[in-house]
Target: Nudix hydrolase domain-containing protein
Amino acid sequence: MSSSTTSSSIKEGKVPEEGVEQVGLLDGVEDQYEGVVVEMKESSMEPKEFVPLLRASMSRWTQRGKKGVWIKLPITLSNLIDSVIKEGFRFHHAEPEYLMLVKWIPGGPGTIPVNATHRVGIGAFVMNKSGEVLLVQEKQGGFRGTGVWKLPTGVVNEGEDICAAAIREVKEETGIEAEFGEILAFRQSHKSFFTKSDLFFVCMLHPLTFDIQKQDSELEAAQWMSLQDYIDQPYNKDHQLFKYVAEICRTKSEGKYAGFSAVPTATASAKQTYLYLNNQDFSYADYL
Model:
């Protein structure tokens, strides 16, 4: 065994084979679904070293009734991808630093969950005490050169709460500091980004500052505009979805609409999270 196979991805256990030198096993961590996760941590390894380890490990896991096997290959071990594929694995997902491959041992379609199916975005309705809405014109994308004034929008980052993303995007695009108010509405669309679906949340924020400093790299312009002028734009009148959003913003400004507030809470595993609920019709404080 070469020195490259002595790190934590390799077990010292042996699988005896008659007339053949005993082979080590990959170090797999069992999950809660009768599967095994292998995280390769070697800085380098050649296919001729890796394939015997993989085959011996697959034999052992099959004997033990394991179902799904996950192999996480760092980018430094990309030379092993072809070998893993030839052993019956398929791509599951990729990140900047690794590729995840999977195999369902029993055969058939299996129950391995698919990769993330949705991208999450936000649009921010920010209105000052004068009844003016914070709007932007974009340099890029479908609105480039159209002259349409729209709500600041953006994509929620991995590990970021919707309410935090709305605050961040407004700050990045316009320089305006704001606090989260409510989720007013959301829509789902499909095949919007490399076949993935898209969830878009319209959020209301309350401005804490008012001096605009637009993001020059993405925006053509940013300004406070009267709510009525925003609603009356021809684009909003001609496109039903945008018309609905504009009218929801108007109704909220008139105090006739209840959205979903962000209530801090925790999951069963004690992870901190938010529950978004209609705080007007349900007072969570009554249950504290």
The chain is about 20% helix and 40% strand. The longest strand covers residues 178-193.
